[in-house]
Amino acid sequence: MKAGSFVCRVVAEGQVYGRDLRVPFVLGAVETVSPELALRWLTRQALRIADGLDPDPRRTEWLPVAFAREVPPGWDAPATLRGWAGDPLAREVALARLKRDARPLFVVGEDHDCRYTLSVSPRSVGRSGRWGP
Fold first, then answer.
1. What is the rounded CA–CA span in Å between residue 10 and residue 49?
2. What is the DSSP string of 6-58?
3. What is the pTM of this model?
4. What is the pLDDT of residues 16-33, one digit of tens each?
5. CB 11, CB 42: distance < 8 Å
């Protein structure tokens, strides 16, 4: 892959006023020069969103221990995002894929009313010198 950058985005998509209309909303975006920095940003965003939706009981002082329970990844958006962010093997595979294949990476967590998509897309400089996907 030629020298370029990585575009990272976090998008929430949900229903508007309970209707069938689903609307995307960009929660954050950044462009960085390396896949390592892109994955670091994505990991922090996954934890930020997970903690915003459902605080991690292991790090929240006000939640009584009696209410703390493990939620298996895939059960809800915070658990899925926290599970990916806390899995070093998943991030290692993602990093290798970004470096080797220069293909986009998507991490998706869904709840009953919203989908959170975290993505990294490589962008390289073409022959014309212009930036492109």
1. 9
2. EEEEEEEEEESTTSS-EEEEEEEEEEESSHHHHHHHHHHHHHHHHHHHS--TT
3. 0.77
4. 887 788 899 999 999 999
5. no
